[in-house]
Design brief:
Blueprint lengths: L3 H21 L2 H24 L7
Helix pairs in contact: 1-2
């Protein structure tokens, strides 16, 4: 359970790095990091949308 908060911060970290590369003019690195960010978001959404929701009604 200790690694989960860091994994949830990963797309925000990669997006921040992509913005930094965009500001510095490194277009290739920026586009690559945006692709990585989108893949992480897609994996994150797939994990949460297919998991069991433990709610007691």
């Amino acid at each position: 359970m200790t690694g989960r908060p860091m994994i949830m911060m990963l797309p925000f970290l990669t997006a921040l790095l992509a913005i930094g590369f965009a500001i510095s003019g490194r277009r290739g690195a920026c586009i690559g990091l945006w692709v990585v960010t989108l893949l992480v978001f897609a994996a994150w959404c797939q994990y949460h949308m297919t998991g069991v929701l433990p709610i007691s009604l």
